[in-house]
Amino acid sequence: MPVKRKNHGRAKTNRGSVNNVQCVQCGRLAPKDKAVSRATNNPIIEAASMDDLNLATIYQKPDVPSFFNIDSYCVSCACHLRIVKVRSEYHRKERYVPKALRPKKL
Ligand SMILES: [Zn+2]
Prior knowledge:
Layout: E1 20-22, E2 29-31, E3 36-43, H1 47-56, E4 66-73, H2 75-80, H3 89-92
Antiparallel strand pairs: 1-2, 3-4
Bound molecules: zinc ion.
The site of zinc ion (ZN) has 8 residues, from helix 2.
């Protein structure tokens, strides 16, 4: 039987079941290994307010804490938001980690 993807779009190798995660965009439950996860690191104060903060403080460039989030998206939202893109049948078979997502060597 022809299959669209070798792993059926999932990373569930030999496990029976995987916990679900909720999509941050639409709220749909998607298996954790199928969901598209992206890490974001946003400062607590937005950039427009940072100028006001810099004017109000005597310190040079105050250290503002930031939120570290791991956002999970369902596949349809990830396509809609262009986090992942539709690939041709040939390019779908390429299995490598994109250069931007590869871990950096120390
Ligand atoms: Zn979604």
